[in-house]
Amino acid sequence: MLEVRNLRKTFGDNVALDDVSLTVEPGRMFGFVGANGAGKTTTMRIAMGVLESDAGDVRWDGASLTKSRRADFGYMPEERGLYPKMKIAPQVAYFGELHGLTPAAAKRAAGEWLDRLGLGDRGDDFVQDLSLGNQQRVQLAVSLVHDPKMLILDEPFSGLDPLAVDTMAGVLADRSAAGVPVIFSSHQLDLVERLCDTVGIISKGKMVAAGTVTELRRSAGRRLRVNVADATPGWEQTLPGPATSCGDGEWLVDSADDQGVLAAAMAAGRVVRFGYDEPSLADIFREASA
């Protein structure tokens, strides 16, 4: 289990992280979301030992992380760290050897992961000759080649087409199902919502919300969505709670009195739609980051 506890990091007068904490349990996938510059990458770099925090610590299975323990992690930085003029298969194998695999084991694992990621026939190509999406697949193979005990991935889905997204999502789901804790950042909130067991929302260096998507939705509250055709002008003033127009006769109403909302809508015109609206992760993110 990975525990990030009370991290603080400043760069001059800029506070990049302010008391950031999160936990990623075995076999769980944690989605880390936030605007550019919110602190996601800084947190991940501290977890991997690339940066040092000013305060707080990162623990693995209850003990402080050391360099040797981090060697068991798979890390995929947002900036690609590949050698462009080196062939793909030897490069993935090389990174496997850096993590302690024998040359034979590294070569075998590199071939298996390139096959799994749809690049089995490109092993003799140079990285610079690949599309950006395929370079991203190679970067993932590098992070997986040594069978890591933890995966930390910074924007792994960036630049991928839908088929490549599905391939990468399947790999991460398989690793998670095998008991590996996975943390990844992404701006694709629908993907985070679909894949992740838990989500953390960071804004301006502070963790402003964390939990399962269900828990975050519950804390955000449900609103009634009602659409009334040919409604009497100003009818929303009769609602037992504040209402926000969505256009085309549709309104979102903050009220626990669902029967009162329905009665007002029926009195105003023909009710086309009526029901509770569950906030999406994008809605929760906007609210939490405001």
TrEMBL record:
It is a peripheral membrane protein. One of its GO terms (cellular component) is plasma membrane. SUPFAM superfamilies: P-loop containing nucleoside triphosphate hydrolases. GO terms for molecular function: ATP binding; ATP hydrolysis activity. It is found in: Cell membrane. InterPro entries: AAA+_ATPase, ABC_transporter-like_ATP-bd, ABC_transporter-like_CS, ABC_transporter_ATP-binding, DrrA1/2-like_C, P-loop_NTPase. Belongs to the ABC transporter superfamily. This is ABC-2 type transport system ATP-binding protein. It comes from Stackebrandtia albiflava.
